[in-house]
Amino acid sequence: MPSPVSSLRMPLIGAFALLSPIAAATQGRVDGLSGNKGFADDTDVLLYPSALGEVDDGVNLNYQAGIDGGVTWGNQHMFWINRDGAPPNSAGPGMTAPFSAVYGQGDGSTGWLARTSWRDGLWTVGGGWSKGGYGRETQNLAFGGDIFMEDDGGDGPKPWVSAYAAGRNLQANQLMAWNARFTVNPDNFSLLEGGAQFGPRWGSDQLRAALSIGPGLTFVNVNPEQGDSVNSLGLDIPSANLAAEYELREWVSIRGSATAGWRLDVADISDFDETKAFSARAGGALGMGFKHADTARLDVSISPTWAVQGPALLSGVGSPMFFTVSGRFLL
Questions:
Q1: What CATH number is given for 12-330 in this structure?
Q2: Whole-angstrom Cα distance, residue 258 to residue 316?
Q3: Over the stretch 72-101, which tens digit does the pLDDT of each residue have?
Q4: Domain map (residue ranges) of the chain
Q5: d(Cα 253, Cα 323) in Å, to the nearest integer?
Q6: Contact between 129 and 107 (Cβ < 8 Å)
């Protein structure tokens, strides 16, 4: 069973930069920017299928501890294998499964998707609906949910459910986004999580950047079959993510992101003083992107540890250079 807790004003020239067309964005670009909510890209269709009506036809392939890929066609259809689109990010229950798939339709105004995933002892089926378009400036809203059928070796499959909602409002010089999810597994746990982000967006002819600041909440009620239930809490108070992308040449870009914040974790709310813990959180990512005439793109997200320490040639202890390698080709 999966773990219940796996979560400025702009100069005029910058406004035109953020309104420029988006060229075949990939999951590698998203990871290099640490998923900053201030950037719109083609992979948004996995959460907001309504945007399919404004996304070019193309083929996607990603390597990220596994391989997933998909295709968009007809300015209204998509089909992905090993990616199921469940929030809070595009990788949901099926990301670690032997099989998962999602099909969606959208016309640039409204859209829907259906998905399923399977692994030994757990099968999911679900879907979502969204409205809103696609672009540097856009407003989107999505709702959906999933049904889980778990075989724990007992009398029969045990069902549990998850429901979510998400939205965003990207303006020329600011962003606002939010997400919420509620999961109920009657025999084991209940999970409530969500967050909100807001901040400025800015740029120039070659630069795009955004600062996302906001709190996050995770509340878990663990209800084991034997013993008393326990309520735990996680709170980001808050966290901030700064991400930027710079176009060195027409065919190559560099990008990077940094995340920092404070977090409160409470293992048992009924014993708050004894189980609370504060911690500082920090992280980051680097990336590069290569494109050819807006028809083909290759993006990589690079481990900051590798960038600082380099390959471990003498010790023999390897540190991976890439988190994600992604390609997208327009049809």
A1: 2.40.160
A2: 29
A3: 999 899 999 887 655 444 444 444 556 788
A4: 12-330
A5: 17
A6: no
